[in-house]
Amino acid sequence: MAAEEAKPAGGPSKLVIRNIGLLLSGDLQKPILDADAIVAIDGRISAVGRAKDLDLSGATTVIDAKETALAPGLIDSHVHPVAGDWTPRQSQINWIDSYLHGGVTTMISAGEVHMPGRPKDILGVKAMAIFAQRAFANFRPNGVKIHGGAPVIETGMSEEDFKELGAAGVRYLGEVGLGGVKDGPTAKKMVAWARKYGIQSTIHTGGPSIPGSGLIDKDVVLEADTDVIGHINGGHTALPDDQIRCICEGCKRGLELVHNGNERSALFTLRTAKEMRQLDRVILGTDAPAGSGVQPLGILRMISMLASLGEVPAEIAICFATGNTARMRSLDCGLIEKGRAADFVFLDKAQHSAGKTLLDSIRLGDLPGIGMTVIDGIVRTQRSRNTPPATRIPEIAAH
Ligand SMILES: [Zn+2]
After folding, report:
1. How many angstroms separate the alpha carbon of residue 171 from the centre of ligand 1?
2. Residue 362 Cα, ligand 1 centroid: separation in angstroms?
3. CA 351, CA 384: separation in Å to the nearest integer?
């Protein structure tokens, strides 16, 4: 009896991916794996290796990668969702689905700050965070995982409030500094309470992003001691280089570089982290939707920018948007290893790129083309509608 016939209806799903031309792991220590096949059972990676060594039988879906590259689905560490797949900031719909066409399979909210009429009273802040956490846990456009419900701290919040938020399932704070708390001592106290109850934190670094937001300088950033230094390259207005260096050297926290920031400062931060041999601290975000709109290709653009101008190999730049973020944010995706979520993006050099290979094309500053995305072991998109066309694209060989 064929394995497929033996499988009971509604039984386990088995995804087999073969003919992978380049397997990018997301792991800084070993960014390229000596493997050409992946097996995923029920949405989790169960084996990675050479096809000849793996059990590929009984697949419910087979993808022939056609020698293209496979990387973990990209993670955007800094988005500002509001509700559904819509942003009131630029009155745009389907932006999350567009991001998936840019390879982003997971996003982390840095605060639902564009909610029209956003409540600033403490009960309202908590209610909105819990609402957004629940809503985005239940709503996944085309499978994209949105970690929403990131309260922006306001003066007067007590330890009990953070305890309540943590118990309700809130896992991330919105950017410190976007609400009423803009001073170091108050931020430090609340960030520590958040951490105590299992809530990670980030901070708005640099000048005001839009009228009404404020300046957060290196002293506040270092005192607040958030888990992630949100947009250390400014959002958009960056701190002076000496302050950025102070932050890099003055703590061990995550260094987040965003698309909607100062690109020169992003390169300065990258060079500083490289000198310090701490590239594992570098993670990427778009900081969108925002005044600069949304950037479906923002994470890819950051990867190409950092690899071409920042003198890091392309396969390392991809780790900034995958394994680094997954480890720092305690996510179960972002790395090609057994047990992780089967979230993948298939890449190839764009048609007519001057680069000889995918990695070479990124080194030259071109964007890669995306041929397919997979989330939880399920094919979500085929040839991207947003990237330049990939030279080769994977095919679903059997279903
Ligand atoms: Zn910000």
Report:
1. 18
2. 28
3. 13
Q: State the distance from the centre of ligand 1 to the C-alpha of 39, rounded, in angstroms.
A: 39
Q: Measured between alpha carbons, how far apart are the two ends of the chain, in Å?
A: 18
Helix (H) or strand (E) holding 189: helix 184-196
- pLDDT digit string (tens) for the chain, length 399 residues: 333 444 456 789 999 999 999 999 999 999 999 999 999 999 999 999 999 999 999 999 999 999 999 999 999 999 999 999 999 999 999 999 999 999 999 999 999 999 999 999 999 999 999 999 999 999 999 999 999 999 999 999 999 999 999 999 999 999 999 999 999 999 999 999 999 999 999 999 999 888 877 889 999 999 999 999 999 999 889 999 999 999 999 999 999 999 999 999 999 999 999 999 999 999 999 999 999 999 999 999 999 999 999 999 999 999 999 999 999 999 999 999 999 999 999 999 999 999 999 999 999 999 999 999 999 999 999 999 999 999 999 999 976
282 CA distance to ligand 1 middle (Å): 17
Q: Calculate the alpha carbon distances from 213 to 158, 208, 210 in Å.
A: 23, 5, 6
Q: How far is the CA of 188 from the centre of ligand 1 (A)?
A: 18
Q: How many CB atoms lie within 10 A of CB 389?
A: 14
Alpha-carbon span 284 to 18, nearest angstrom: 29
Distance 175 CA to ligand 1 centre (A): 6
What pTM was estimated for this model as a whole? Answer: 0.96
Q: How far is the CA of 111 from the centre of ligand 1 (A)?
A: 9
